[in-house]
Amino acid sequence: MPFKKTRQGYADALIELAPQIPELIVLDADVAKATQTCDFEVVFPDRFFNCGTAEQNELSVAAGLALEGYRPFATTFGMFATKRAADQLRNSICYGNLNVIVAATHSGISTGGDGASHQTNEDIAIARVMPNLTVLVPGDYEEARLATVAAARHEGPVYLRLGRDQYPVVPELHGDFEIGKAKVLRPAGDYLIVSTGIMASEALQAADELERAGVSVGVVHMPTVKPLDIATLLAECANAKGVVTIEEHSIIGGLGEAVASCLSENLPKPLRRVGVMDCFGESGQAPELLDKFGLRARNVVAAVKDLAS
């Protein structure tokens, strides 16, 4: 199975889009080599601006550029985009409903050796609660590229969540990308797995294992966490006995709670959430951390079996 970086899909899309969208501008916060926007800087140096390690200022600059008709991509780590610059994200960008894409790399537990200070497992929760803000969480390199293209043409602010490590390439995620639309990767079964981001590959592996054990399982991938594709979720849940969500994020405030809220109001079902528990991360290699924090296919399998017991 090939592995590629989602942040590279983002950078490649920016280079692809720049000739098509003259107003596209890329900002970074002195981490261009880490976010891969250094690739864009090489090709379009006059359209790249390093705002230094001042993320609040970076998002304020992005807001000003948007007011002048530009299409800014403000790039930094997820920890800084949603914590350090939360005020500017809310009041300067979301309140004005501006056309700013906040691209956050190094999100989730798979940030690895940088440790708890940089492993943002709360950013989806923070972004979801911001009025006007669309939240995209692509699952692999190609979907990150497609999500970036879609975000560039979207009206209103976007939070684009990307990772640090290399992740499995998942062909089922490729093709058309429409903001607000889920992808049905496996048809509905007795149980339903709902994933977002890089957990799509784990969800598919879990479904395959369960099918071999005689358990019928559907898989829905949510590359858009906000707005949630309620219609597809309810349609796929209609005949399911229970639902399991999986995300590389805290179980508090992320995909799991979005799905739980939707189902509780429309179609109550037994549900289990697989994700980072109410805790901080720690330093380690990405695969080790995904194992330690229970973000693997085997954890999804266990959750489905728990529902079935």
Descriptive account of the structure:
By secondary structure, the protein is α/β, with parallel strands linked by helices. 39% of the residues lie in helices and 21% in strands. The protein contains 13 helices and 14 strands. The longest helix is centred in the first third of the chain and has 13 residues, at 55-67. The radius of gyration is 19 Å and the shape is globular. The relative contact order is 0.13.
Q: Would you kindly provide a brief summary of this structure?
A:
The chain is α/β, with parallel strands linked by helices and 309 residues long.
According to CATH, the fold-level topology of the largest domain is Rossmann fold
* Major sheet: 7 strands, mixed
- Radius of gyration based on Cα positions: 19 Å
**Count of DSSP-assigned helices:** 13
CATH superfamily of the largest domain: Thiamin diphosphate (ThDP)-binding fold, Pyr/PP domains
Number of strands: 14
Binned, the helix content reads 25-40%
- When the domains are counted, the total is 2
